[in-house]
Amino acid sequence: MKVHNIQSCHLGPEISPEQFISDHFFLYLLKGSMKAFDGRNTYTMNPGDAVIARKNHLVRYTKYRENDRFEKIIITLDEPFLRKFQERHPVDVPVFANDNSFLGIEATKFIQSFIYSLEPYYTGDLQIDETFADLKREELLLILLKANPQLASVFFNFSIPEKINLEEFMNRNFRFNISLDRFAYLTGRSLSSFKRDFQKRFGTTPYTWLKKKRLDEAHFQLSNQHLKPAQVYLEVGFEDLSHFSFAFKKQFGKTPTEVIESQHPGR
Predict the structure, then answer these.
(1) What counts of helices (H) and strands (E) characterise the chain?
(2) Domain with CATH 2.60.120 in the chain
(3) pTM for the structure as a whole
(4) Helices marked H in 118-190 — which ranges?
(5) Which of 95, 37, 178 is nearest to 186 (CA)?
(6) Which positions carry the signal peptide feature in this UniProt record (predicted)?
(7) Is residue 122 within 8 Å of residue 13, measured between CB atoms?
(8) Kindly report the CA angle at 11 between 6 and 14, in degrees rounded to 5?
């Protein structure tokens, strides 16, 4: 069934603008393509692909437009909705060992029919009419659980992250531009406990360590991988190119551009 006549829409609570998935969400790609990186794995999506993005994971997205268009369906499955669903539809919660940030969903005829069925419910701003929003989310969840009952252990796990190895986690995820509160939460700590454990393990504050780690990584990418400053600053966790350049020069005595030029004299 063709579904490319449907434009982008979002159903459910808004997704955090941070590189942090605060609630599970279903994503169906209509136009364009997308890559996502979670510190360990890279995920690629093309038109017609469907995934579940899992809460409490860090993910960086790169979107590629098709004829200047990137269209998708996003349906957020937040905890209050999932708890109400579980009350209405009690299900066994099996063990699910896979901790991937994205879980591929087979785009069956039921999924495609569901996507197509959303169009009549759109309001003028391409949002689902609130009267039907939870009904459509419930329909989607029933389809997903019937196809793969093991997803119940993903959706209905309401526990908070357990305390994990701080050094391993930070070395894998320092490039993600999130708050210290998020880092603390994801390592199973309060903010004060996170700062205290960080000082013991690294001998410095999280802010100082993150800044140095990100700048060292930027220097490596500029000098060894020959990337441009505009390609690097977001990749290593900075929000602003001018701030990145200022911090880089303060640490290394050269601007990012001067580092590149020193590797290629005469260019």
Answers:
(1) 11, 10
(2) 9-155
(3) 0.84
(4) 130-147, 152-155, 166-173, 180-186
(5) 178
(6) none
(7) no
(8) 125
